[in-house]
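Dear support,

Our group has been running a series of protein-ligand predictions, and this particular one with magnesium ion is the one our PI (initials K.S.) wants archived with full inputs and outputs. We had some confusion internally about which version of the output was final, so please treat the block below as the authoritative record. The input we submitted was:
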Amino acid sequence: MKKIGILFGQERSFPEAVIERINQKAVKGITAEAVKIDKIFQNVPLGYAVIIDRISQDVPFYRASLKNAAITGTAVINNPFWWSADEKFFNNVLAEQIGVPVPKTALIPSRQHPTGTTGDSFSNLTMPLDWDAIFNYVGFPAYMKPFDGGGWRDVYKLHDKEDFFNKHAGTEQLVMLLQEEIIFEQYYRCYCIGGKHVRIMSYDPRNPHHLRYAVDSFTTSSALLKTIEEYVIKLCTYLGYDFNTVEFAVRDGIPIAIDFCNPAPDADIKSVGEENFEWVVETTANYAIERAQAQKDGQDNLTWGEYIKSSVAGKPLIAKSASKTTKKPAAKSVAEKTTAKPKKPTVKK
Ligand SMILES: Nc1ncnc2c1ncn2[C@@H]1O[C@H](COP(=O)(O)OP(=O)(O)O)[C@@H](O)[C@H]1O
Ligand SMILES: [Mg+2]
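Confirmed final output from the archive:
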């Protein structure tokens, strides 16, 4: 019997529903339950073919347990190694390289020294930083948010540089992104499961929390939806997430990816609504069964993204489309100067 386990924290509706759905399907040789842990010994498997991880971002003990599970054969959804390595700034860099539009974004060092360091630890930072260049590149209004944040924690909208310095002064040890504001006509939040199943949801972040998904579907061209779907799949397969949400702000008809590092996205019935909930429960159940059936003992059963795979193989990251839509046409942005782009083949005359 292959077991599918769910590891979760305070959430209630989603984990229970997925367990129930998998068991209702009564697929021969497959069963689902909440993961049970009463000890972790090195190199001892936990006994699950698949574990769906909904909580290790908050519990380092679980993250280490999942790495132990992964190397002893469990297909962990999402890959705990990649999740440990990833953050939003890297996400944006990768998106640019694979041709998915993102807001212009700068990385800002933390206001306070990380615990255990002093000013002497920062021998390589030029102080003050080149703030003029940073503000010119990003522009105002701007958004400031943690490079590894989530759940809207410490997200600020900033109007000018004084506003930036005031707000940044209160961010303690957080490493922040300073990002161009995208003034959007539409906003979408998309589930992506297995790097192939996509659910595009109209979402209005300007509404109070419980009404964000309760927007009437925006009238949207099928071409835009197709582009969104293509970007969602591209981002999730290059990053290597089995389960993620990708948010887009649509400006002048162009979807710009805002937030796509959500490996344990909100799936509560109260926030996403009944129809989206049904989709995510059913798709997760089917996908977990598929992964359990494919799982083989004694080997790695994780999903690895195209970025890692091409790096390991020593191959360049292939950008299929190089459309850059978030830049002002005039001055060259920092990103344009620094981002490696695929070279056009030279044509012999
Ligand atoms: N660059 C941006 N332009 C416009 N709105 C933004 C931008 N960045 C964030 N926001 C707004 O702030 C919200 C939270 O930011 P987000 O990047 O999604 O962080 P979190 O991971 O905490 O959800 C978004 O849903 C969006 O409404
Ligand atoms: Mg978000």
